Amino acid sequence: MMTRPLLDVHDLRVTFRIRREGAMPWAAPLPLHAVSGVDFTLDPGETLGVVGESGCGKSTLARALIGLVPAAGRAEWIDGRDLIGLSPRQMMTYRSDIQMVFQDPLASLNPRMTVGQIIAEPLKTHRPGLKSAEVKERVKAMMEKVGLLPNQINRYPHEFSGGQCQRIGIARALIVEPKLIICDEPVSALDVSIQAQVINLLIRLQRELGLALIFIAHDLSVVKHISDRVMVLYLGKVMEIGTTDDLFADPQHPYTQALLSAVPVPDPDYDPAATVVPLAGDLPSPMSPPSGCVFRTRCPRAQPVCARQVPALLGDAHQTACHFPGPLSDEEIARARAVRAA
Amino acid sequence: MVIEERKMQSLAARLSQDEVRGRSPWADARKRFVRNKAAMAGLIILILVGLFALLGEYVAAWSNDELDFTVMGQVAQMGMPSLQNGHYFGTDDLGRDLFARTVQGTQISLMVGIVGAAIAVVVGTLYGATAGYVGGRTDQFMMRAVDILMSIPYMFVLILLLVMFGRSMSMLFLGIGLISWLDMSRIVRGQTLSLKNREFIEAARAIGVPAWKIVLRHVVPNLLGVVAVYATLLVPLMILTESFISFLGLGVQEPLTSWGALISEGAGTMNYGTLWQLAFPLFFFVITLFGFFFVGDGLRDALDPKDR
After folding, report:
1. Cβ–Cβ gap A102/B199 under 8 Å
2. Hey, what CATH topology would domain B28-59+101-303 get?
């Protein structure tokens, strides 16, 4: 099976230049590597879940792919064009193929525009030839598709609930018939019952329209539900990537194991202390990441080699960036707890 | 069942056919504004002053450049306000009808205020929004230019302009227009900076909306609240500036007049027992300033209900 992937990302890097506080104006700003060398591929119609703790570069990755922040590396689209470093004019042709759904449903809608105007905006930008009657017709059809009443086309965002606002955001992303939608934590701001509705809507639309999704979340159960494959990020680097079943059943990287063990279990008798693998310390600063493996400062299995050598992302379908992959032994878990307790 | 299912369904279909009209943030603000008594009183005063300026000419018995020779030389005794001889507000020192003069002064003062504020709104908003949205070096350059212009004592420049190029209405508008937009552009830039990183702007950028359209369609409409408030407070400021210039004798030129010029004349003859020459222009001047301040306050409360 050698079909071309929809998106082939290779060594994607996003570096922000941070000026130190109180620094002289001529002092060179310090680099902050928000995303440092991410590789992955995405097939048409596939869902890739991206997980990781706050500050690991999930959202920056999304913004880099859509061209909102400058990035380096390659992100090859299905037609062979590299999306990174395109001029805004060249990027325009791809903007209707890649759309984004944002985290805060209300904040991502202009409060002074009606729902109809909001959903029509991508259409008016990318298909300027359409007549306004036809635009309205399409907007109404799309509203129906995402589960909104088409007669509410003249309402304003503040008149809708959070879940409805997110449906408006999804309608806006879908109206230009994209091939890829990047969802940046689309359900984090919603409560649980609404989360399920929005996620099921996304799954249904994906099946109907053959969309590929990049689904960013920090809720692992949501990611497990929606994704075909899952990518685990830590400090701007890929730790592990594999099919959802594989990764959740048999995580290889110590970080993935710690992350999975922290998923809350809805059972009052369940004692989290028995299974959670605690991690010592906080996320290191991305201004000065640890040498070698970025996770080694908190890893219960760290060896001297981890500080010297950056582990490569190895494997076929299930790739891991670790010198010593494999399930954590009881001994290592006990050691991690002891460090945490100290 | 009491409820007939078929009828309910047709009702539901009917209901969902009609497009519901949305309640825009503007409509909400209008409702809050109408409920504010002081602001409504201010608005009514302004409307009355506006009507006075527009229709006063038709009510006046005398034109503004006619001299009444019967009162000339004995203004203090004969020129007081009276309905019999048609000088409703009395006459000025030369025997001209003060009612007609006040109408004319009102027209010119309001025009100066509104034109000055309009220049500030258009230029200041676009300048500030552009500087804030583009950011970086462009922003630095544009705002330093504003700083430099602001550091020049504007009254001095205005007086110099009027002295060098002669006193004329267009020169007055130019001078006031030059200085009025500076504060506005600063306020708008600050607001733009806080709007710029909101998600809906980012969404528009991700869609690929060109930058000038983002500024016009997404940034400016969300700024208009602040701009509207500041503009209503700017109108009286412009009127005050013009009045001050006219009081100094540099503003509008005879036979034109303005509130400032009329008040100046009235103040000069205060000691001769012709107090009405000061009182009438001053009355219109003061109620208009109050009106604008009340309306500005009401607008601020209406547009930003959280800040009360």
Report:
1. yes
2. MetI-like fold (1.10.3720)
